[in-house]
Structure formats: structure tokens, C-alpha cells
């Protein structure tokens, strides 16, 4: 497992920063974007993020009465969907390292009438504060790329899975459809920061988000990382021509 003793710097977008500093900078980004996070998701993706999350939820195989964990769950879209799957006899834990995002997620779920069967925990994905074999399914949606030590986070998520449980990673990835990459680059580095400036009054955070996507491992590399974390039967499914990918693996 990597760590600060072995790797003194890491990437924050296209910048190299001290290992210990990335979490602080990421926290600053999400403190800034939290109030407009849901609106910006709709604007940035043209609403497609809702379909990507619906596909992710279709992969959980959750049944009533089971337990699920949404890591880096932000404003709670996946947690809300899984709560419907497990019902009031089950449990969904919405976790996020960022207090502002977690509070927004809690408010949204309460507004949706979800009171029983949902818990909220501020937690670092690299060191999840749950017992071994606690959950039937763990999800992380658009959060892994912001984690400093991705192998540690994947190992931590595997650890809290029950035997037979599955980890599902929804994340931006690398376009594979012919001709898509230059269009996507133009959108990411010209349109996205502009929308961030106009709507959220924060161009820098959305430039970082675009850069963080480019620095995230591609589909095959992330697949290997899941296997290295001890997950089995790992595979992925490209969405939107590879702009987004859903990876999954099991703990047996």
C-alpha cells in the first residue's frame, strides 16, 4: 500500500502537491462547490448523471433488509436509490469526508422523507470506520479520483464488504469512442470552467475537477487496481463512449 513515507508528492489536478496537502485542497474545492453541486451536475452533464447513477443502482443486486455503504456519497443520489432497494428493514450509510457535502446530502434525504434506515458518517475512504464484513454492497460515485491513496481506499472498501458483496465504482474515465476525445477536451477546459464561473462563481474548482478526471486511471488500469485490492470477478462497463465507466468487483 502506498503512503506518505513512500510517495512524498501526489497530483492535485495537474499540480504536484505534498501528499498530506491534497486532502486539504480537495476539501476546499468541495466546501466551495457544495451549495451549487446538484445544479452544476445537471448543467455539466445535461442531466446524464442521473442515468449513469440509475445504471449504477441497477448493478447493486441489493435486496430488502440488506446493508449498503455509499462512500464519498456527497448529496446522496446513490444512497437514496439504495435506500429504496433495501427498504426500512435494511440500512444505508451515507459517508463523505467533507462535512459540507455530507450535510447537504442529509438535508436532501430528509427532504425526500428518508428518516429510518439511513445513517450518516463523516469518514475518510482510505480508513473507513466500520467493522470487517459489514455491508452487502459498497458504492463510490465520482469520488475515487479525489482520494489521495486510491489503493488504500479500495482495500478499505473491500474490507468492509461481506463475503459475496460487491464494490461498484462510478467514475469519469477515458473516452474510447472515435473522435470523442478532442470534443470532450474542448468542453472540459473551455466550457466547464466558464459555467463554473458564471453559475457557481468558482472557475478554479471546476478547472480542478476537469484536470482530476484526466489524471484518474483509465479503465484497464482501474480494473487492475480493483484486482490488486483483492476483489474478484472484476469488470467494467463504459457509458457515454467511455466518458464514464462503472467498475465492479466482488469479495468472496
Strand and helix layout:
Layout: E1 9-12, E2 15-18, H1 22-33, H2 37-45, H3 48-58, E3 67-71, H4 77-86, E4 91-96, H5 99-111, E5 118-122, E6 135-141, H6 150-159, E7 161-172, H7 180-200, H8 203-215, H9 219-228, E8 232-239, E9 244-250
Parallel strand pairs: 3-4, 3-6, 4-5, 6-7
Antiparallel strand pairs: 1-2, 7-9, 8-9
Helix pairs in contact: 3-4, 7-8
Explain the overall architecture.
A hairpin with a 2-residue loop joins β1 and β2. α7 packs antiparallel against α8. Helix content is 43%, strand content 23%. The model has no long low-confidence stretch (mean pLDDT 92). The radius of gyration is 17 Å and the shape is globular. The longest helix has 21 residues. The strands form 2 sheets. A 7-stranded mixed sheet has the order 5-4-3-6-7-9-8, sandwiched between helices. The protein is α/β, with parallel strands linked by helices and 252 residues long. It has 9 helices and 9 strands.
Cα-atom Rg, whole angstroms? 17 Å
Average pLDDT, rounded to a whole number, is 92
Number of helices: 9
Distance between the termini: 21 Å
Beta strand count: 9
Name of the CATH first level: Alpha Beta
In spatial order, strands of the major sheet run 5-4-3-6-7-9-8
Fourth-level CATH superfamily: Vaccinia Virus protein VP39
CATH domain fold name: Rossmann fold
From N to C, what is the helix and strand string?
EEHHHEHEHEEHEHHHEE
Biggest sheet descriptor: 7 strands, mixed
Helix content: 40-55%
| Classification by helices and strands | alpha/beta
Report low-confidence residues grouped into runs of 5 or more.
Answer: none
CATH architecture: 3-Layer(aba) Sandwich
Domain module tally: 1
